[in-house]
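Handout for the seminar on molecular recognition.
Each group receives one record of this type.
Step one: identify the two inputs.
Step two: read the structure output and locate the region that could contact WTA.
Step three: write two sentences on what you found, then compare them with the reference statements printed after the record.
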Amino acid sequence: MDDRNGWGRERPAPTGLPRNPPTSFVEQANVTNERIHEEFDEPASWERAADLLAWDEPYDTVLEDEEAPFYRWFTGGTLNASFNCLDRHIEAGRKTHTAIRWEGKRGERETYTYQDLFVEVNELAAALRDLGVGEDDVVTIYLPMIPELPIAMLACARIGAPHSVVFAGLSAEALATRMDAAESEYLLTCDGYYRRGDAFNQKSKVDNACIALDHDVQTIVVDRLGDDLPHVLGDGERDYHDLREEFSGETVDPVARDAEDMLFLMYTSGTTGEPKGVVHSTGGYLAHVAWTSHAVLDVKPEDTYWCAADIGWITGHSYIVYGPLALGTTTVMYEGTPDYPDRARLWEIVDRNAVDVFYTAPTAIRAFMKWGAEYPAKHDLSSLRLLGSVGEPISPRPWDWYHERIGGGECPIVDTWWQTETGAITVSTLPGIDEMKPGSAGPPLPGIDARVVDDSGTEVAPGEAGYLVLARPWPGMARTLYDGDDRFLEEYWTQFSDPETDRWWYFSGDAARIDEDGYITVLGRIDDVINVSGRRLSTMEIESAIAGVDGVAEAAVVGRSSDANGTDVYAYVSTEGHSENGDAIREAIVESVESTIGPIARPAEVIFTPELPKTRSGKIMRRLLAAVANDEELGDTSALRNPEIVGEIQAEIGDEGEANERN
Ligand code: WTA
């Protein structure tokens, strides 16, 4: 038996068998009504989510569906997200309660009470206003995992300015594209940050991005690195700490926002090269994230809760910032990586902070498994009550390992399926009620109508693969794309909807299976999006970065399954003429991908081929290339114009593999 992964001989082999939540958990769960799935049967059932918030004006209609799929939730209601995350907890006498516990990369620690957070958010909100930021002006935030990131989001929310957070690891070009698309004239960023202990310059990326923009930008710079990386402020640039001093002690009344007003936009990869600006509302989004934090993640105000994601992606928006803070809990924010300074780092943080709920991604769990059980075993993890997984399918083996080695066999696991576009969790077990089936996310949440259908929209039989669709609207759903309603309709509402019969089914882009009990197992993306370590990347975006390299004729990018990352980026490239310069081109390709998108999109392999396999009509057969990369059956190749090329590519991959093994 393979013992590397911590499955010692004294342990039973993983079974993947269904499990019921332990009684100790059930007894204290936030949601225990076993009839909730049946009872949650009309839009008005979502009132329980809206009831978790404080409204300035109560809403008069739960759901307006006249202009489907442009649904409107909680209309007539007004509220402010920063008021919901801060003021109301202070008014309830909880100002000294810890809101954020920050763990820095170099072992620094900072604690923000709700009062501390209130003060800093208000000062920044006052400063933003003074700079001219008005309601509905998009503010771009390009910050790593430092407290100023959620502070900036809440300051924007306070004055009704939608934020657009760009993941700090994305390139200057990616930042410029997003700022340009959102016509964003304000930017919050920092001088740099530490990467594995070294100072890394973020500001120079910002300078390059701003040069590329046609409009002027006012920038606020957080000095994160001090003397480790001195920087000079240029025209239109202000220092964050100076501004805070200037506006010290000032408060700003939270702006009452319409429930349907935009809280933020978040760019994500789509099926074309252009990222999509997903628009989220204030009322429906906040209600849905608060409700799922309560019902699925079982968050309680007295908990210490830790979602180990990055706020630069949707998971961090919904489940590090808005959900937990709306519920008034303590949210842990971790700046570093799981293996620095050592592989026990996360467990040391759980132990020291007595973390109650821990939420992470399968890619991290697979890494923990590979490193071995001795790291978590060094620490007391008995404070944990619930574990969560998000971002990719989690197969039974890592599920069992997580359950045993991190949860001590006593914590339920919620495997939560959702997307940037759904805003909040839509498929998951309810931890105090539903049986868990390792490898399957679970049934749709109450009120969510998730189905697995074939091409014609007919539900497939249990066990068969099909497309995952959502057949009923939900409060956290994206309202549109910033790029326009047409693209929104085209991306999500054409495949399985039928305007003639007013049938509006949202297409997720994922394939799935459903079992007799209605449990959904997500199989992965079926469009041109790949999921690398839980991060969404568009193969077309990577291809266009590669195609821009001198000497490259054509490129096709596919995903190859990988134990470590879920999927790796695999690039097939044909070069112009007979290039002898493979290594240099390979280097230039990697460089181009990193500078146009970011290091996260770096190809794991670049395979050179004289030609790409094409159909007679000239379309690159990516399906075939994916099959080759994954060493799978090739299926029908009769449509190919150049079938001989497939064998050549296979031989090339074989050589590469051998070369890699030798190295
Ligand atoms: C995948 C992240 C299987 C899926 C919240 C989806 C999952 C994409 C799961 C969205 C899960 C997310 N099981 N696959 N529990 N959760 N996915 O927009 O392919 O970054 O379409 O949102 O991640 O990625 P996004």
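Reference statements: Residues 644-662 form the longest helix (19 residues). Residues 163 and 177 are 15 Å apart (CA to CA).
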